Amino acid sequence: MSQEAQVNAKDVYQLRQQTGAGVMDCKKALKESGGDLEKACELLRKKGIETAEKKQDRQASDGLIGSYIHTDGKTGVLVEVNCETDFVARTEEFKSFVKELTLQIAAQAPRWVEPEDVPEEILEKERDIYREQVKSSGKPEAVQEKIVEGKIKKFFQDHCLLEQEYIRDSSKKVRDLLVETIAKVGENIVVRRFVRFKLGEDDNE
Q: Check: CATH 1.20.120 for 119-158?
């Protein structure tokens, strides 16, 4: 069976639902992957990352401020997300992305948007703690440092919004959702800042 024959409408529709890519891009990815949906999805994600990287230098000065208050009234979120034009800011894709971020922040309580936002003094403090933890392991120093850096990576995954697992799909990071949305709307998108309130607590120190 040829690769052309393996591309059917059902697969194209499913791939579009998963990635948000256009019909022609989905067909092309399915042909390249020999009809394998998982490989086609990976191809489109890579293409989305490339597209996003090309757009990241573009000015993003429009956008929306999203808000969410949990049903018990005890947790609230505000997030500012920027795009390039008011036209995109009003699209359902962009609004949906902003809403998903508010839910993610409410549920997972990140402290920063991305690793670059973590203050250096906090990182050094974490590294010192991890070094103390592995010091008695008896492993070579180079191995200990690798373990420390692995723990720092986990720290980012726990505390940085874009590095967190997406609450609706643990196979994705929030950064993947960002990349997919950039591919859908065709503009640069920047998660600028957020604040999360929980009754009686200060989650943003």
A: no
CATH, range 62-114+160-202: 3.30.479.20
174-185 and 37-55 helices, crossing angle to 10°:
80
The tens-digit pLDDT sequence of the chain (205 residues) is 344 445 788 888 887 777 666 778 888 888 888 888 888 888 877 776 566 656 556 667 789 999 999 999 999 999 999 999 999 999 999 999 999 999 999 999 999 999 999 999 999 999 999 988 888 777 888 888 899 999 999 999 999 999 999 999 999 999 999 988 988 888 889 999 999 999 988 644 4
Question: Which residues 6+ apart lie within 8 Å of 54 measured at CB?
Answer: none
pTM of the predicted protein model: 0.71
φ/ψ of 199, rounded to 5, equals -50, 125
What the block records as the tokens of 50 is 């490339």
Report how far residue 81's alpha carbon sits from residue 91's, in angstroms, rounded to the nearest whole number.
13
